[in-house]
Amino acid sequence: MKRVWLLFSQSATVLLAAYFVVSTLKPGWLAPRGDSSLALLQAPAVHGGEVPPGSFRLAAQKASTAVVSINVSHSSRRQSRLPEPWPGFFHGDPEGEAEGASGMGSGVIVSASGYVLTNNHVVEGADQIEVILNDHRRARAKVIGTDPDSDLAVLKIELDRLPVMVLGDSDKLQVGDQVLAIGNPFGVGQTVTAGIVSALGRNQLGINTFENFIQTDAAINPGNSGGALVDVHGNLLGINTAIYSRSGGSLGIGFAIPVATAKQVLEAIVKDGQVTRGWIGVEPNDLSAELRETFGVLAPSGVIITGVLQGGPAAKAGIVPGDVIVSIAGTPVEDVSQLLAQVAALKPGASAQFSVQRKKLVLELAITPGLRPRPQKSNR
If pLDDT is split at 50, 70 and 90, which confidence band does 280 have? Predict the structure, then answer.
């Protein structure tokens, strides 16, 4: 009898263990045939706000509070924007706006005192500007200053307890770094998209006078203009400005102004109400085989001057068409973008040394830059 009881107890133990294993790992095996009841498998609960691997949740939460929507109204019809392939500046209706119409864009709060960075083309010609925070507060904004050459503008709102975006270091960005784009595309509400840095230093795109864009494939669409491009820590890397698009929607090619440039413009506008840049009054062009032949250029590198403004700083210093500017204050000049940036950095009224090659002659000319004129109104 004892042997029978021992055999029974061992068999029961084995069967219970098998049932436990099957019910845990393969619960479907125990369902009766023909049972139509719903059997769902539930993932384990995430404990205490744990962030899933690869999530950008923390960066998005940190940065999104300081990104605002901007509504602007115009009393008169605005001019049409840039021709193809740039129909997709992220600002309202790409076909233009009727009288009394409104547009939309985005902005970034960069100071607890209420300063907001956005694009100049978002607020250009606006009669009224309203800023809407992520917490749904609204405020009328005042334009502190604009810089059409970089397509940046600084607004100010009067609200307390403002969230502020932390400025990152765009100079340390590398191709392949992950980034987030935050804005208000198509007016649907704040949206966060992710991508990588596709390229750096993009220029000669015909968007701004001074171009040094961060290119990204993070999805950005109309309404994102002036919004934030941030790193995986939620720090500001750039101000989203334009997309390459033939349809008006995102094709994965977007451009942002580096925060290093935006910071310089912000500080100049807050301090002086405008950005002061040097100007010498020339029409520069990159060296090409055709221009080399036309002007008999012998310089191996530099920027050729094809036009000189009569009475301008360069003309007074002796610059003539066909001259090739090789360096400014000892810094080599390789292309038009470098020339514009270096001249803009010069202090108006302070003489600077220009190395110029005129056919076989190498000249050292002292040019006193003037104040760069403000550009004509944009046709965007």
Answer: very high
Which residue among 106, 225, 245, 250 is the active-site one?
225
Same domain, 287 and 268: no
Catalytic residue among 74, 106, 121, 355: 121
Q: What is the largest CA-CA distance in the chain?
A: 123
307's tokens: 């036009």
- Does the annotation count 225 as an active-site position? yes
**Residues 348-363: tens digit of each pLDDT:** 999 999 999 998 899 9
CB 366 within 8 A of CB 305: no
Which of 147, 149, 151, 323 does the annotation list as catalytic?
151
- Same domain? 345 vs 263: no
Kindly report whether the global pTM for this prediction surpasses the value 0.85: no
Asked, for residue 36, whether it belongs to a domain, the answer is no
121 as an active site residue: the answer is yes
CA separation for the pair 220, 248 (Å, rounded): 10
